[in-house]
Amino acid sequence: MSDSIDRVFEISVDGRQVAVTDEAMTLLDVLREAGVTSVKDGCAPQGQCGCCTVLVDGAPRVSCVTPVRRMRGRSIVTVDGLDAGRAEAWASAFCESGASQCGFCTPGIICRLEGLVIKGGDLTDDAQVGRALQAHLCRCTGWTTIREAAVSVASGATVAVRDFAAAGERATLEGRADQSVGPDVALGRGGFADDIAPADALVAVPAGEGWAVAATLFEARSAAGKIQGRRTTLEPTPPIALPEGDWAVTLQTGWVDPAYLEPDSVWCEPGGEPVGPLLNGGAFGAKSHSRLGEVARRIADERGRSVRVVTDREWVVRNGAKRPPVAIGLRVDGSGEVRVAATHGIADILRAVGPAIDVVEVDAAGPPTSAAIRGAGWVELHLALAGLRGHVGSIRAPDGGIATAKIIDGAIRITVDAGQALDDVVLRSYAIGAAHMALGWIRSESIAVDEQGTVHDLTIRSFGVLRAIDTPQIKVEIVESDRPPVNGSDAVFAAVAAAVWLEAGCPPVIPTR
Ligand code: FES
Ligand code: FES
Fold it and tell me: What are the per-10-residue average pLDDT scores of the chain (513 residues)?
């Protein structure tokens, strides 16, 4: 980037001049290549997640669909370029309310809300904040805590002393992968693999069945061809037929993408150990069996150079692990049959919850599935069993978390016993995020996959993740406990899903949209 021979023009980023080497680049391409790693790529070039939002002349703008040639003479500000006191206020507020978990979406959201302030908006006005957040997706937090952070910034609230080691321990339990907690995470400095790779690493991107390798991401993607996510008119349908039987309760589920916002990314040096993709969260279990590390190691060894492997939204939808679809039939005595997409380990999980229920694994043409996805299998069975009983009660997750959920006047009320809380802010944040995910799973989340197994919904907005304005009030009560700390959010996910499904009258197919 610094070679003046290649330089086409310069743009102003956070008060410094940054060289643009190719007019065909987007603003996001230029920012990332200039080392501005706080600006994230969650879905480029779809322009749908908001993770790449920056301020252009004070107005929020999605940089992945902004041609850089239009940025001549404009002033671009990222979270890194905010006034130091302002950045600290945002980071502290997000940390204080638990509004940032993996942190991938957060810098873009901060830019959006700062833009609201710049144009004279009111951070304490819930409707204004809700409208501003419409351009964003957050998979982790469930929005409530982000709204609270906005109010906190407006009121200039100060930050209480926290034990961030304990907070990180709680976040790691909830995310089932190493997770740090602190103000830096909100500013995009949590340490994602693509952000911490050596600056001179080669870049490998998906290209057909293989990988295109180049010196920069822009060059690699140009060589691979344009990535064009799309949404289909094909209706999502459950891929597994119900077994024959005289069932009192039935439940069929479809294909669901976990919809984590950081596309899988790994880097590796020759002869070294791959780094990522499990940094800053576990993507709800979806990245736990990723094979990208092998790809990164192989290319690094072949080229004798460090390489970072960077995927994109469309690749993640096609290749990322999904929740195994099921078809369940239960008789009044609690016996019955579960048919589930053949998935390593899923049968054992189901048999542990319903020893009297037959489990049959079937081939379901479609994307890969994983039993490591949050609550895979056992939550579906708990739903059907709750439908049989006609009430939810408290749900105990296989590793010990206990939760209850009620829906009162449209609001979701949760209790969670996760052993010693370690950090109430983090536990509450994960509980709210799990409730938001459960609500979306029952009501709206699914992707269309045809009978041949080809995925057709390839944009992040097509997954049905609930937006901030569609998310009801979620209240969490943490049960005091002396038990050793355990994951609590999976039990919350199960309890809320069951409560929402029962309230809807136990419809035989989810999502209910
Ligand atoms: S990366 Fe730009 S909107 Fe998602
Ligand atoms: S904190 Fe928003 S996507 Fe993870």
Answer: 61 96 95 97 95 98 97 97 95 95 97 98 97 96 97 84 93 94 94 95 95 96 77 84 95 96 96 89 86 96 98 94 97 96 97 94 96 97 96 94 96 98 98 98 95 90 91 97 98 98 96 86
269 CB under 6 A from ligand 1? Answer: no
The pocket around ligand 2, CB under 6 angstroms, is made up of 100-106, 138-141, 261
Domain CATH for 498:
3.30.365.10
* Residue 467: C-alpha distances to residues 65, 301, 457 (Å): 21, 43, 18
Within a domain: 207: no
Upstream peptide bond of 484 is cis (omega within 30 degrees of 0): no
Q: What is the pTM of this model?
A: 0.95
Does the residue 225 lie in any domain?
no
Mutate which of 140, 280, 436, 466 to test ligand 2's pocket (most atoms within 8 Å of Cβ)? 140
Q: Which of 171, 187, 203 is the last residue of a domain?
A: 187
Judge whether 463 and 131 are in contact, CB under 8 Å: no
Number of structural domains (the chain) is 2
Residue 404 maps to a domain: yes
Q: In which domain, by residue range, is 75 found?
A: 1-162+182-187
Distance 347 CA to ligand 2 centre (A): 31
Nearest to 362 by CA among 338, 336, 381, 383: 338
Is there an atom of ligand 1 within 6 Å of 193 CB?
no
